[in-house]
């Protein structure tokens, strides 16, 4: 009796693990298929997960046999330079598939017809790839079958060979043509973006956008439009190269907060390149009075500044903002002391030592010249004659040049 019960338990366990943890044969036993806690979305929820992490695949053909009950597909750390047309089996339905993670696969090119039957997917992750999306590689309808996509992760996703201003233009086309009307979160961290460039409306194609993450780029200003984004509530600009906001950026943010009030937009921008001199005066005053929620701005550190004692201070500790140099009359007018302050760097002891050295060297040279005056004369007199004759000739030559051409 006990024995049969034991047998039953073993049997059930075997069946359980077989039905839950075995992938179809095409996966070559390199992946895990089964219920697993999801890293994405709700943390304490188990989902049917197909996990091919660092499986050494160089093609994605096995995804044709992806079980149709899959809820989370993790396919990362493989080498798939080009994603094929119809990545998943076209005759199957994937109504439960809510997360696709394709990070770190060295993907360079995604064809326009790669993704089908993905209308339930909420999260698409393409981090750490080498995507090229410009010129002949541009496929504006790339994400068009992701009808309910809410979170798009494009952290360090693009090839560094292509200038960010170029692929941002393509990205605007992709957002427009793919109609990502449910997108709430856009991750664009670590993409070497130095300027949004001419397409300041790039994010306007994402009407439901709530969170925009531009951390770890090279932005120098807040140079994109947000007035078209009615649900936006969070922007991350940490670790960029922002020295201060331009007047235009401050105006745009004030206008946005005025319209959205009382809801606030939160901007996180620690570890930028704050410069605390007279040119930041307006910006720091603005930070102190704007209704936009610039998180912890009082603790931003000055990476540079004038007077130089500002360097390393936080914005709340800075009390004096002067101009580093005279760029124009009006800057001097703002701070009449800046000019005089400029020479304070050299101590009088240094200047004294330098003057002494100069006088000493000159007298030494004169003394040497005096003692060898006969010899010097014999060297220099012929040269002097030669030079004066030469100048005479060249002067003549120059005057005659037109005549020579005529001959
Ligand atoms: C196997 O999957 C079934 C549902 O398909 C589930 O009830 C069962 O708990 C799973 N077993 C294991 C060991 O994960
Ligand atoms: C996927 O598999 C890898 C390695 O096999 C493992 O480290 C990782 O935790 C798995 N992920 C999930 C969500 O199960
Ligand atoms: C695609 O799905 C169909 C229908 O379920 C199935 O018959 C076919 O074998 C699948 N193709 C592959 C390559 O697994
Ligand atoms: C991108 O192009 C701009 C000018 O068009 C240039 O200033 C910048 O250095 C380029 N950036 C890279 C990473 O090539
Ligand atoms: C913006 O457009 C102007 C004119 O169309 C062009 O001259 C300029 O190079 C563009 N700037 C960038 C950063 O692409
Ligand atoms: C901010 O403004 C208040 C008064 O409105 C002022 O007392 C305070 O010194 C200002 N702080 C900074 C850092 O400018």
UniProtKB/TrEMBL annotation:
Keywords of the record: Leucine-rich repeat, Membrane, Repeat, Signal, Transmembrane, Transmembrane helix
An example Gene Ontology cellular component term from the record? membrane
Q: Where is the signal peptide?
A: 1-19
Q: Can you tell which superkingdom this protein's organism belongs to?
A: Eukaryota
Q: Which InterPro entries match?
A: Leu-rich_rpt (IPR001611), Leu-rich_rpt_typical-subtyp (IPR003591), LRR_dom_sf (IPR032675), Wnt_signaling_inhibitor (IPR052286)
Q: Where are the transmembrane segments?
A: 351-371
PANTHER family for the chain: LP06937P
UniProt-recorded name of the protein: Trophoblast glycoprotein
Species of origin reads Scylla paramamosain (Mud crab)
């Amino acid at each position: 009796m006990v024995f049969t019960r034991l047998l039953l338990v073993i049997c059930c366990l075997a069946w359980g693990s077989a039905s839950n943890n075995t992938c179809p044969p095409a996966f070559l036993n390199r992946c895990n298929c089964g219920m697993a806690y999801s890293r994405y979305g709700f943390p304490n929820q188990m989902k049917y997960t197909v996990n091919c992490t660092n499986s050494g695949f160089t093609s994605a053909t096995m995804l044709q046999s992806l079980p149709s009950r899959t809820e989370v597909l993790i396919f990362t750390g493989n080498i798939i330079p080009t994603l094929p047309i119809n990545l998943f089996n076209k005759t199957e339905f994937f109504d439960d598939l809510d997360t696709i993670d394709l990070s770190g696969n060295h993907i360079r090119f995604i064809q326009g017809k790669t993704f089908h039957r993905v209308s339930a997917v909420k999260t698409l992750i393409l981090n750490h790839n080498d995507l090229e999306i410009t010129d002949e590689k541009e496929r504006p309808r790339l994400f068009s079958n992701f009808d309910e996509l809410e979170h798009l992760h494009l952290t360090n996703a693009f090839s560094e060979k292509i200038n960010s201003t170029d692929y941002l233009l393509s990205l605007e086309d992709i957002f427009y043509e793919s109609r990502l009307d449910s997108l709430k979160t856009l991750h664009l961290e670590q993409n070497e973006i130095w300027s949004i460039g001419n397409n300041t409306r790039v994010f306007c194609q994402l009407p439901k956008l709530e969170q925009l993450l531009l951390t770890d780029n090279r932005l120098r200003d807040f140079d994109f439009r947000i007035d078209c984004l009615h649900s936006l509530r969070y922007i991350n600009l940490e670790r960029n190269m922002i020295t201060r906001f331009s007047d235009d950026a401050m105006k745009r943010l004030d206008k946005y907060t005025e319209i959205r009030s009382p809801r606030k937009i939160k901007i996180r921008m620690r570890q930028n390149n704050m410069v605390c001199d007279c040119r930041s005066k307006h910006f720091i005053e603005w930070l102190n009075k704007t209704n936009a929620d610039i998180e912890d701005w009082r603790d931003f550190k000055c990476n540079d500044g004038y007077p130089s004692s500002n360097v390393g201070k936080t914005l709340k500790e800075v009390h004096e903002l002067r101009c580093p140099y005279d760029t124009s009359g009006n800057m001097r007018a703002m701070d009449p002391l800046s000019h005089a302050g400029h020479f304070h760097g050299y101590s009088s002891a240094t200047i004294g030592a330098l003057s002494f050295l100069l006088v000493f060297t000159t007298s030494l040279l004169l003394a040497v010249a005096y003692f060898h005056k006969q010899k010097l004369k014999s060297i220099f007199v012929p040269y002097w004659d030669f030079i004066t004759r030469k100048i005479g000739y060249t002067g003549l030559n120059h005057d005659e040049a037109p005549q020579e051409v005529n001959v």
